[in-house]
Amino acid sequence: ATSFYLLLKQFADKQKAILEYHTKADLAEKQFFSDIKPDAYFTFETEKGKRSCFVEIDMETESKATVRRKMQRYIDYYISQEWKAIARSFPIIATISLTTTRVETILSETSELLKENDYPLILCKFATFTTIEKHELGSMIWDVALKEEKARLL
Fold first, then answer.
1. Which ranges in the chain belong to alpha helices (H)?
2. Low-confidence residues of the chain, pLDDT below 50?
C-alpha cells in the first residue's frame, strides 16, 4: 500500500492535484466504510473536478470466493446509497495485484458479479504493481470490468 501511495502522491504533485489519502487504519474509525473495509480510500481534486477511489491491494492470498464476497460488499454498499453522504458519484474501486494472471482472474470474477447484480454503475479497475511502476499512474494501463479497452485510473 505504501508503494502505491508514493506513486499516487508523485502523480498528484505532477498534476497539481489535492490528494487526501486514508489508510485502512484511518478508515477503521469511519462508519461509512465499516462494511466494505478497503485497504485505502483517496480523493483526487484538480481544477477539472474531484474523484474518489477505494483501493484494494491484492497480495494474492485470498481465494476467488473471498474476493467475490469482498466485491459483493461494494455492490451492496452502492445499492444502499450510504456513499452519497461522502461523494457525488460512487468511488472507483481500484485493485492492484502482483501478477497479470491474478488481474485477469479478478477481472473476470468481478465482471460476472456485476452482471449478476444487473450492472450497477460501478467502475472497477485493475492493474499490477509492475505495470503501475513502469508507466505513469495516469496512463491507459487499467483493465476495467465489463469493458474491452484499457483506461486511466481517474
1. 2-15, 24-27, 64-80, 100-116, 129-134
2. none
Q: Which residues contact 32 (CB under 8 A, 6 or more apart)?
A: 82, 83, 85, 86
State residue 63 phi and psi, 5-degree precision. -70, 165
List all residues 6 or more positions away from 122 whose beta carbon is below 8 Å from its beta carbon: 74, 75, 78, 90, 93, 114, 145
Which residue(s) pair with 70 in the sheet? none
Q: Which amino acid is at 6?
A: L
Cα dihedral sign, 5-7-8-13: positive
Check residue 94 and give its pLDDT.
98
Alpha-carbon distance of 68 to 109, in angstroms, equals 7
From CA 122, how far away is CA 151, in angstroms rounded?
14
Q: Which residue has the cell 494501463?
A: 141
Here the cell at position 151 is 483506461
Residue 89 gets which letter from DSSP? S
